[in-house]
């Protein structure tokens, strides 16, 4: 048996394994064909069945629909991949044969996915270590993992994901809907910057509609297509540095701001090929530019999902094999240089969340929502209030209530991007402290939109946004 056929057999073996173990979670069509013709003599058939998954990817408008590239998008293809891939990887782990693993990855990238092979290999190379670890350490079965990672089944089906924050033993004050201030009240102007995503490899004139998730970085435009524009391009591209610089310079001259909310995602979307050094270069370079353009302005910063390398993976302290301190140290230096009080450092080093008093009576709380999203695979090992961040938030909201402060919350991902239990707990907190939370400001969506929170009992009554 050639090596390739052996791996194909493995894939087929999984598919059947998947079917018997997790019948409910398996999409019908592809599995049916395997069932009708189980692995006996004709390995080609198995190959065809599995390449059925490939068509799911072809359906997606763009490879950007891949979750790790975009963050928010759901695709059926990912669930298929998870259902097939999870038992596959668990089996490879059990076999513990690194050459076999390499070959499986290579074969997979070559045969099974309509994705630029280099992108696939690059992503596999970046993520496979973490994925293996997570599958080894997670106390979950395959269905639970796919539910948590890609919401393939409702998370509420699994009691293991349910947890509750605890509130101080103080009754909720009577709700006081906000009143518009008198026109003569003093005002603060706030600039909100988010998701700058600068591509330092941007090349004007290069191919803007390439087969990778991020383009405008090289290659000749196809005949009949125009090349990447000088200032940017609405096809699959991030912006060049000079555009980011010109934009914020213009903003700084056009209006007077008192301070800035700055909610993360500085690096570009070439997530299949990013190193820690790349991310640090982006963070340091963009922040130095901002410090020059806005001298003496305080930036209240929050961390995005793209600052880590690999993107989205923010290990919690219970993970022994990875450590995010390299990033949090850089963020603490950068954020304090951009105006945060020096006493936020310890909190930033701990988890890249902190609180600071903006003005007497106005407190800012910056959250690290990478500890809430399913994109952060480390949470599959333990998703219960990572680093106790929500409990910490309650502590500060109670402090603010006791001291008659109002609070602005900033963060990168909105709570609608969180794992279900996290999102519900967040909702409960916003309900309890509706008089104290005066506003919430998020990034990540790449769209201007409002999200409204409603009372948990009187679901017609808005309480926050
Ligand atoms: C896998 O094999 C390596 C040696 O190649 C060994 O050191 C390691 O302990 C093995 N891991 C498991 C889980 O068996
Ligand atoms: C990753 O980027 C480096 C340059 O930073 C380049 O040499 C390499 O070819 C890239 N790899 C892939 C898979 O794109
Ligand atoms: C969390 O609280 C809800 C009610 O608010 C309750 O139904 C659920 O059982 C609680 N879960 C745990 C794990 O305590
Ligand atoms: C920045 O603040 C320092 C000290 O507070 C002051 O001397 C300097 O003129 C300020 N620079 C600008 C550009 O406002
Ligand atoms: C990560 O590294 C920092 C500094 O190097 C260290 O203080 C911390 O204990 C490490 N965390 C883990 C979980 O190993
Ligand atoms: C998960 O993390 C929470 C909070 O960090 C901790 O209280 C809990 O014991 C952990 N659960 C497990 C199973 O390790
Ligand atoms: Zn973004
Ligand atoms: Zn983001």
TrEMBL record:
Q: Which cofactors are reported in the record for this sequence?
A: Zn(2+)
The catalysed reaction is: a sphingomyelin + H2O = phosphocholine + an N-acylsphing-4-enine + H(+)
May I have one GO cellular component term?
extracellular space
Q: How is the cofactor bound?
A: Binds 2 Zn(2+) ions per subunit.
Q: Name one GO molecular function term.
A: acid sphingomyelin phosphodiesterase activity
Using the record's annotation, list all stretches that form the Saposin B-type domain. Answer: 75-156
Protein name in the entry: Saposin B-type domain-containing protein
Protein source organism: Rotaria socialis
What is the organism lineage in this UniProt record?
Eukaryota, Metazoa, Spiralia, Gnathifera, Rotifera
């Amino acid at each position: 048996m050639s090596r390739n056929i052996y791996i194909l057999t493995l894939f087929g073996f999984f598919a059947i394994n998947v079917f018997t173990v997790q019948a409910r979670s398996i999409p019908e069509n592809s599995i049916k064909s395997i069932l009708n013709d189980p692995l006996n003599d004709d390995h080609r058939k198995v190959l065809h069945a599995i390449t059925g998954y490939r068509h799911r990817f072809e359906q997606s408008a763009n490879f950007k629909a891949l979750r790790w590239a975009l963050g928010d998008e759901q695709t059926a293809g990912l669930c298929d991949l998870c259902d097939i891939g999870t038992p596959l990887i668990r089996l490879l782990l059990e076999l513990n044969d690194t050459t076999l693993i390499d070959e499986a990855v290579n074969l997979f990238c070559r045969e099974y996915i309509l994705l630029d092979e280099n992108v696939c290999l690059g992503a596999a190379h970046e993520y496979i270590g973490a994925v293996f670890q997570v599958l080894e350490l997670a106390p979950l079965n395959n269905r639970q993992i796919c539910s948590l990672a890609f919401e393939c089944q409702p998370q509420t089906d699994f009691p293991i994901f349910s947890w509750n924050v605890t509130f101080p033993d103080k009754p909720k004050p009577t709700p006081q809907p906000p009143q518009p201030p008198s026109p003569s009240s003093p005002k603060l102007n706030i600039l909100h910057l988010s998701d700058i995503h600068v591509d330092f490899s941007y090349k004007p004139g290069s191919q803007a509609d390439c087969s990778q998730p991020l383009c405008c970085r090289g290659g000749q435009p196809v005949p009949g297509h125009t090349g990447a524009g000088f200032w940017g391009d609405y096809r699959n591209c991030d912006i060049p540095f000079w555009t980011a610089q010109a934009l914020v310079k213009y903003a700084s001259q056009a209006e007077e701001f008192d301070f800035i909310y700055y909610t993360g995602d500085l690096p570009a979307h070439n997530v299949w090929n990013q190193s820690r050094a790349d991310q640090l270069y982006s963070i340091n370079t963009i922040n130095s530019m901002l410090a020059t353009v806005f001298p003496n302005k305080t930036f209240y910063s929050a961390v995005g999902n793209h600052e880590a390398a690999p993107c989205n993976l923010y290990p919690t302290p219970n993970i022994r094999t990875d450590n995010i301190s390299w990033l949090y140290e850089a963020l603490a230096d950068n954020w304090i240089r951009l105006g945060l009080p020096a006493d936020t450092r310890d909190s930033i080093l701990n988890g890249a969340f902190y609180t600071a008093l903006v003005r007497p009576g106005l407190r800012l709380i910056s959250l690290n929502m990478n500890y809430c999203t399913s994109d952060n695979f480390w949470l599959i090992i333990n998703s219960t209030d990572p680093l106790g961040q929500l409990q910490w938030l309650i502590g500060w909201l109670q402090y603010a209530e006791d001291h008659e402060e109002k609070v602005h919350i900033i963060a990168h991902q909105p709570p609608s991007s969180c794992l279900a239990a996290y999102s519900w707990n967040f909702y409960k907190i916003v309900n309890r402290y509706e008089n104290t939370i005066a506003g919430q400001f998020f990034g990540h969506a790449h769209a201007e939109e409002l999200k409204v929170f409603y009372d948990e009992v009187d679901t017609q009554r808005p309480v926050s946004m």
